[in-house]
Design a protein that fits this description.
Blueprint: H1 2-14, E1 23-24, H2 26-36, E2 40-46, E3 51-53, E4 59-61, E5 69-75, H3 82-97, E6 106-112, H4 120-130, E7 137-140, H5 150-157, E8 162-164, E9 170-172, E10 175-179, E11 184-190, H6 196-208, E12 211-212, H7 221-226
Parallel strand pairs: 5-6, 6-7
Antiparallel strand pairs: 1-12, 2-11, 3-4, 5-10, 8-9, 10-11
Helix pairs in contact: 1-3, 2-6, 3-6
């Protein structure tokens, strides 16, 4: 299948990314993506702070994730259309990253915007239903003492709303946020049509500060991977 071929090719090539070597700077990666990925938005400011909890009640603060690159998105489990697709897109990216040395350097975080209905049981079932690996994925909800709207307010702090309708649905956009290891919000990838390899490339640049340059007369890993997309 094409998806399997993409997965294997991307993962194998990313394994070859050297930790040290002549390389594009993060600025150059941002320029590459700014020119070639129309769903990429460069940002550089402190990420909104949060203190939330997992299904088992363990508290997770943004500060707890320092040193990790965080790929963050918002969903609600009863969403009938785009949230499942967004989760599966994140799972695809996670699957590729987890086949590389980046696995221990990246945490995927999903926040529910419907904490009343997304109970602990619902949250525990969500990841397996959408292919997300709990080894470096967290599904977070509000603390008991926080307001029912607190996670929707957090989404607003990240620049987009989840507006409740009378029938219990939520009107919202789709954005994947990237936060660096120092807690700075570095990028948004909008919608579902961005190329997964572009998000992976940006994450890679944040985890080691660089991606390989084009070789002398040889085609770069970037060019070889993107041939598959």
């Amino acid at each position: 299948m094409l998806t399997s071929r993409i997965f294997i090719a991307a993962a194998a090539l990313l394994m070859l990314v050297p930790a040290a070597a002549s390389a594009h700077s993060l600025v150059e990666v941002e320029k590459i993506l700014g020119d070639g990925e129309k769903y990429f938005q460069m940002i550089d400011k402190p990420a909104p702070d949060f203190t939330l909890q997992m299904a088992d009640g363990r508290t997770v603060k943004q500060a707890d994730l320092r040193g990790q690159v965080v790929v963050l998105n918002f969903v609600y489990a009863s969403c009938p259309d785009v949230c499942p697709l967004h989760s599966e897109k994140i799972a695809e990216v996670q699957g590729m990253i987890n086949e590389t040395p980046m696995k221990d350097l990246v945490t995927f975080v999903t926040v529910t915007t419907d904490p009343v209905n997304d109970t602990a049981d619902v949250m525990r079932g969500y990841g397996p239903a959408h292919g997300l690996d709990p080894v470096n994925w967290l599904f977070l909800t509000k603390l008991q003492e926080q307001s029912e709207s607190s996670t929707r307010e957090l989404a607003e702090a990240f620049g987009h709303g989840f507006d409740k309708t009378e029938d219990g649905l939520q009107m919202h956009g789709i954005v994947t946020h990237v936060i660096d290891g120092e807690g700075r919000w570095r990028a948004n990838f909008h919608g579902l049509k961005f190329q997964s390899i572009n998000l992976i490339t940006f994450v890679n640049a944040l985890t080691n500060g660089s991606v390989p340059k084009h070789g002398h007369g040889r085609r770069s890993w970037w060019e070889r991977v993107t041939d598959y997309f």
